[in-house]
Amino acid sequence: MKVLLVNGSPRLNGNTRLALETIGNGVRNNRPDWAVEMIDIAEHKISGCIACGSCKKNGGSCVLDDETNDLVEQLAETDLVILGTPVYWWGVSAQLKLFIDKWFSRGKELGSMHKKLGLVAVGAAPVTDREYGLIEEQMKCICEYMGWDFVFSEAISASGAGDVSAQTDTMERLGRLYKML
Ligand SMILES: Cc1cc2nc3c(=O)[nH]c(=O)nc-3n(C[C@H](O)[C@H](O)[C@H](O)COP(=O)(O)O)c2cc1C
User: Fold this and answer.
1) Helix (H) or strand (E) holding 5
2) What is the rounded CA–CA span in Å between residue 129 and residue 120?
3) pLDDT digits over 33-83, tens only?
4) How far, in Å, from the CA of 123 to the mean position of ligand 1?
5) Fewer Cβ within 10 Å of end Cβ, the chain: N or C?
6) What are the residue boundaries of the structural domains of the chain, listed by start?
7) Which CATH architecture has domain 2-176?
C-alpha cells in the first residue's frame, strides 16, 4: 500500500505539515509494510491550468514547463492520498488547488484507478465554523466524480505555526488515524 501525504501549506513548520507528519508516523509505526511519502506542494513549480486542452490530445501530459507531470505520476502510483490544507478564505490553499486542477491532465485515467482520499484542514477558526464543512464537501464531490473512497476528514483549529503540537488530544487522534485507512 502506497500512501501519499500532500502538504498544501507554504509553512514547512506549520500545523498542516505537522498534522500530516503525525498521521504518517502513525502509519509507519503500525503498518511497516506500507510506503509513506510526503510532497510539499509549495516546494514545487506548478503553473495554473490554462485549459489549453493539449493534455486531452497527447495522452495526458501537461505541456507547461513545470513539475505537473512528475507530481501527477506520483499520485497515479499511490493507493491512498491524504490532502492537507490550511484554510485560506474558507477554502483550500491556492498551492493545493493548483495541484488538484492539474489532475485534469489525466482525469479519466486517475478516475479509473481505485484510490482512497483523506483530508486534513487546519484553520484559525473553531472547528464548528463553516469552512471545514465547505472544504470537506468539495473533496467529497471530487471523490464522487473520480470514483474514489473518501476515507476520513479531520478539521483542526490552530493558528500560529506549529500550535497544533500543544493539542495533545488532536495529536493522539492523528496518530491513530492509520486504523481507518
Ligand atoms: C491568506 C490566509 C487566509 C486565511 N483564511 C482563513 C479562513 O478563512 N478561515 C480560518 O479559519 N483560518 C484562515 N487562515 C488561518 C490559517 O488557516 C491558519 O493560520 C492555519 O493554522 C495555517 O496552517 P499552517 O500552519 O499549516 O500554515 C488564513 C490564513 C491566511 C494566511
Assistant:
1) strand 2-7
2) 15
3) 999 999 999 999 999 999 999 999 999 999 999 999 999 999 999 999 999
4) 5
5) N
6) 2-176
7) 3-Layer(aba) Sandwich (3.40)
